[in-house]
Amino acid sequence: MTVPIGAYLALGALLFVLGVAGVLLRRSALIVFMSIELMLNAVNLTFVAFARQLGRLEGQVAVFFVLVVAAVEVVVGLAIIIAIFRTRSTIDLDDVDLLRG
Amino acid sequence: MELVIFVLAAVGAIAGGVGIIASRSPVRSALSLLLVLGCLAALSLLLAAQFIAALQIIIYAGAIVILFLFVVMLLHAHSGETPPNRLGWLTPAGIVLGGVLLAVLLRTVGAGDGGGVASVGAEFGTAEAVGQTLFTTFMLPFEAASVLLLVGIIAAVIIGRPEPASPKPTGTPRQVVEVSRR
User: Fold this and answer.
1) To probe the interface with B, which of A27, A76, A98, A99 has the most B CB atoms within 10 Å?
2) Is A73 helix (H, G, I), strand (E, B) or coil?
């Protein structure tokens, strides 16, 4: 191991922050969705890095479950985005504010 | 050698991450996501997670990104380019808060003592080893995940189904709601 585990963790943190920035700064529902995927993948990298450091497989199994949940989330979320687009002809998150308090 | 691969994959992943949030066209964002996923699969290989790397390529790059591209083409054939930014002063605030979060996370990572890296055999991270753990210790979560997938399929079909041609009027018609909102 010439690359320390900390480098992987730092990369995961950076990618996670990029995902957070995407959710905060972009208003297109699709881009926000991709940013969420980016955050999930950053956490996956962290899981794999810790699994390698500890020499245990539980981290990799956790990544497996994250993949399953991410797949379901993408399918349902994209269906919701299409349904919103059908009724309102927009996917801009600032225009979808019917529940605004 | 390992360092070279790590640096290449890390640079690719960061470039892809920036590309997702910075590019104007959603198609480029989706392709940037693909770049990130490929680089993360390479990093998983470096961390002795062959099975996870294969899953990453098959599920994420093969299925999820394609689904994104389908939806982008479905929607933006009608809506054109992305709308102008209306966030105003919230944009610099978001960048600053993101920087603060990054500083906190990096500080936490740096504060760890690092510890020793466990030595693992060649069978660590193979489909056989992961499957062994999955089907013994994590049997119940595995079954729950299959039910979750089924629920997701049904939900997507129900939500994505086109509305019936002549819906029976129940409650307030949508047109009235739309008009009263304006």
Assistant:
1) A76
2) helix
CB under 8 A, 24+ apart: contacts of B140-144: B141/A65
The stretch B81-87 carries a mean pLDDT of 63
B150 vs B115 pLDDT, higher one: B150
Contact map slice: B 108-137 vs A, CB within 8 A: 109-110, 112, 114-115, 117-120, 124-125, 129-130, 133-134, 137
C-alpha–C-alpha distance, residues A42 and B37, integer Å: 10
The pair of structure tokens assigned to A66 is 């994250």
Cα B174 off chain centre by? 34
B52 neighbourhood in chain A, CB within 8 Å: 44, 48, 60, 63-64
Q: How far is A46 from chain B (nearest CA, A)?
A: 10
Residue with tokens 């990093």: B43
Distance CA B19, CA B35 (A): 9
Highest mean pLDDT among A88-97, B14-23, B170-179: B14-23
Structure tokens at B56: 């990453």
pLDDT tens for A44-76 read 999 999 998 888 889 999 999 999 999 999 999
Total-model pTM: 0.85
* Nearest in space to B43 (alpha carbons), one of B1, B4, B5, B16: B5
Residue in A10, A30, A41 nearest the CB of B71: A30
Measured distance CA(A91)–CA(A84) in Å, rounded: 7
Angstrom distance (rounded) from CA A96 to CA B97: 25
Separation of alpha carbons A96 and A90, rounded Å = 8
Complex-level ipTM = 0.90
